[in-house]
Queue: 2 jobs
Job 1
Amino acid sequence: MPEAQPLIDTDAVVVGAGPVGLFQAFQLGLLELSAHLVDALPYPGGQCIELYPDKPIYDVPGVPVCTGRELVESLGRQLRPFDVPMHLGQEVAEIGPSGDGRFLLGTAAGTRFRARTLVIAAGAGAFQPRRLKLDGLETLDTTQVAYHVADPAVFAGRRLAVVGGGEAALEQALRFAESPDHRAGRVTLIHRRDVFQAPADRIDRMRALVAAGSMDLVIGQVTGFDAADGRLRSLDLTLTDGSVRILNAEALLVFFGLSPKLGPVADWGLAMERKQLSVDPSDFRTSVPGIFAVGDINTYPGKKKLLVSGFHECALAAFGAARHIQGREPLLQYTTTSSRLHALLGVDGSPRSGSAG
Amino acid sequence: MPEAQPLIDTDAVVVGAGPVGLFQAFQLGLLELSAHLVDALPYPGGQCIELYPDKPIYDVPGVPVCTGRELVESLGRQLRPFDVPMHLGQEVAEIGPSGDGRFLLGTAAGTRFRARTLVIAAGAGAFQPRRLKLDGLETLDTTQVAYHVADPAVFAGRRLAVVGGGEAALEQALRFAESPDHRAGRVTLIHRRDVFQAPADRIDRMRALVAAGSMDLVIGQVTGFDAADGRLRSLDLTLTDGSVRILNAEALLVFFGLSPKLGPVADWGLAMERKQLSVDPSDFRTSVPGIFAVGDINTYPGKKKLLVSGFHECALAAFGAARHIQGREPLLQYTTTSSRLHALLGVDGSPRSGSAG
């Protein structure tokens, strides 16, 4: 475990910074509750960004069409007036009572919270990238075998193998083949078949670069590797005809998508039903007072895993959190008419750092 | 009663074409159920349009700011692929069983439906304009005393008195003072005090027209009228100093806002709690099988009168309606990935009249 950091006191920790977690923090803000967002992924957006960043969504009320990326950007803009800190790339590692009715929550990165309430908005759980399974591969460090690119400079100028057939694989391959800042020594894109799940213009661009000799494409699978002194030297690629080709490579970037995994949530002693957290639909509280669950991770009679349901759950859970903290029913105010909400949102003309516009 | 029209058979009649009613029709469409919308107002939008057409709303998820008018326009655009007929300016006059498990519903205008389900999305009830209370005023016809302007040509060229201090009063006064098509003989705007609730640019425009002598403004109240042979001749205006002025006028347009009124919904034999319809939050069914209620008109434990809650209720009520009609759980499909939904929404490239974009 990393060294312990000072405790952060807050009204609420929202576990999960997907669309529902973002809107949860917004709803808490409207009720003047402080919140921190924690997510295992290194960026906000959850499933929306991981699974369908560029696919259109047609059923967000009042938004006839938007991509997952656009939705997450809009939700982030909406949340901005509340200046909610986000602790990204941090899995929740431990949770427990603080002894005074509050919760202690620690992340694997060492961030520690003392929170009056928790709202679990963890979607299908803490997403983890699907791994490439090769004996010994895990002994190589993250500058040589990576499932996320946190800092592209690490890979600049090196011989890179990028594995996968989805949008993430293509984007990274194109970035390292083209970006003037981070151009790789050489990029080879490897996929088990010659079909890619990505926007047509990105696929076209990749094929153009391959045709121009600016990058390589291999249809096949990574079936072995060679390393010396802890350094990756080459990969064994098994082609579709069964033959094996050796590819010199200094780093391997794998984009096989994400595997949902409940992570520590499953161990928290909360009432569950088929891997979902059971909640009361009047305020989406779990079986533990002060812990709420919203979005795809919860279940109640009639539950549908829809964004619009998650958003509603956030609103009522915020009221539940306020009741838990304040011991009374908070006032329902409307953003159209409440001058108090206008001041909070920074839209009353008073000087303020945030703006909802 | 107007002459009976042929019965319209449908899966669902949605009573109320406010934002929640519009989204209800959309959700029914996603489940391939046919729907008709009925509203007492002559246009869609309900409270959003009547009470805050130009006030910003900040808490629609993923929409950092929009006006009521913009929200209603977006919801209308979102609904367009389903070609849902709207029966506007029609109050629901009667409802009863059809004898085969369906419902018969008739409007005051004579439209008649036989529906497998009803979804009541009537907000605070059937809105009705607040009346100007003067003995005998109700004996004058709607070409002389009006609370809505269905056809502006009726009032063109005549001496008009427009009463009220809100946006509707100003818009109508400006229209009849300025529009080349419908210019009145003379427009007098009457309001009890010299303060107006309308966008600043509309107020400025009104004052400019008054200053230029193109229309009149009287601060006072209508306290009497004179009519002969059923024709309005003049109004008595009591000014703030108590003096009375006679204003020649051929028509009186009154915009005092809307008074919520439950209307026939209150007589339908549905379980209610403090003027709200009691519903089961698993699918927002009322106490009558096949009748659902969504939005501000319903109540259940934890209910908050929020747009985002109304939208969620629509989604689950659509599933409830499908279960009621089909006797089984409909498949939950996602608009991001389902090619069937893409075809319904007209976004699969196939030829279709509607488009969600």
Job 2
Amino acid sequence: METVVNLEAEAEKLQETWSPRVVGRVNDQYVKVAKLQGEFTWHRHEDEDELFLVLRGALTIRYRDRDDVALSAGDVHVVPRGVLHNPMAVEECWIALVETVTTQHTGDTVDPRTRSIAEQLGGG
Amino acid sequence: METVVNLEAEAEKLQETWSPRVVGRVNDQYVKVAKLQGEFTWHRHEDEDELFLVLRGALTIRYRDRDDVALSAGDVHVVPRGVLHNPMAVEECWIALVETVTTQHTGDTVDPRTRSIAEQLGGG
């Protein structure tokens, strides 16, 4: 891991959408970057909150049991543990995430786009 | 805590330098914003890493036992636990921090500018 990482520069390197990459760690949390476009998959992380920071573009976090949350660049929103959610971006959106090192990409849902933590760390 | 917080807008509200304000929480970590100018105080957080994200301006993290780290807007750097450091900004700099909810402002050092966690939460 580099000593200094520029979040937008790290996001820019990503080839694929919906494929987060770990760029740092603080205590028991990974910092990740990702590119998003379109709609992801409904999922929840039973025991873990998930922080979204929008770097570029606009993002909506869709919820089943509460109002959707609209985010623009520089906005932070924390998806609470245990709550069904689905990120959606009409245009390509770049984000940073802060989440526990054990957090599974799509929580308790399996999706063809699910990435393992090893893949997010740059492993196989 | 608001559902959506814009980091720069939260930083802009701050009246004082070196007085972090909690604006969010993800798992066992607080997200804080602060304005910095000048030099702070040498300190360490024995058991806790501290993430710096520069929102505006430029920041140097000075170290005693390694090279200083220079940061610009969008850059992230994690000060490792147990390592003496001192933030320094020639011009006013706005930052976000991610650190464990128990992290003391100036670690094991006491300084007139030390802010309690209650103060950072907006309490007394």
